Amino acid sequence: MEKMKDKQPSRFTLFFENFANQITWVSGKPVSFLVALGFVFVWAITGPLFKFSDTWQLVINTVTSIVTFLMVFLIQQSQNKDSQAIQLKLNEVVAALKGASNRLINIEDLSDEELKVLKSYYNQLSDIAEKEESIMEAHSLEDARENQKVKEQADFKPQ
């Protein structure tokens, strides 16, 4: 097996990853919601002081637009990293399981049409599994088809 190259990410990449992770973590806390709710409450209370002026309305619109715009990128960074980590873990599971099809490794690189074809095969597997007497049976698609053929040929009948 080839050694993985020790490619170091740039300082900016490391900073951005760390920053995005921290902001995503903090923004997911209940206290962050309460702080945001507090800002909206203060803004609403100050409405009469500013006679509900256009400037008063512009402040909340501008702030929320900027925060939302920036949060999209920060949260997407965290989602991309999490998604990639999960995909790699799933690839490892598929590679490690004896009966698993290695064709599923890097399945995320397939086109939508290829995924639809593969999904139809797994729908067939689901149909076959529904005919099983035990819900504890698990097979790859190839195993399931072979098992189904054997059962049909033997004409299994419950005893």
Provide a concise account of the structure shown:
This is Low affinity iron permease family protein. By secondary structure, the chain is mainly α. 69% of the residues lie in helices and 0% in strands.
- Taken together, the total number of domains comes to 2
Question: What is the percent of helical residues?
Answer: 55-70%
Strand content: under 5%
Nearest-angstrom radius of gyration?
A: 27 Å
Number of continuous helical runs: 5
- Helix and strand pattern: HHHHH
Question: Which class do the helix and strand fractions yield?
Answer: mainly alpha
The average pLDDT is 84
Strand element count = 0
**Biggest sheet record:** none
Low-confidence stretches: none
Name the overall outline.
elongated
What is the first-to-last residue Cα distance? 51 Å
Keywords: Membrane, Transmembrane, Transmembrane helix
Protein name: Low affinity iron permease family protein
Transmembrane segments: 31-50, 56-75
Organism: Adhaeribacter arboris
Please tell me about this protein's structure.
With 159 residues, the chain is mainly alpha-helical. The chain contains five helices and no strands. Helix 1 (11-27) packs across helix 3 (54-96) and helix 4 runs parallel beside helix 5. The longest helix has 43 residues, at 54-96. The protein is elongated and about 85 Å long.
Please describe the topology of this protein.
Blueprint: H1 11-27, H2 30-45, H3 54-96, H4 112-130, H5 141-154
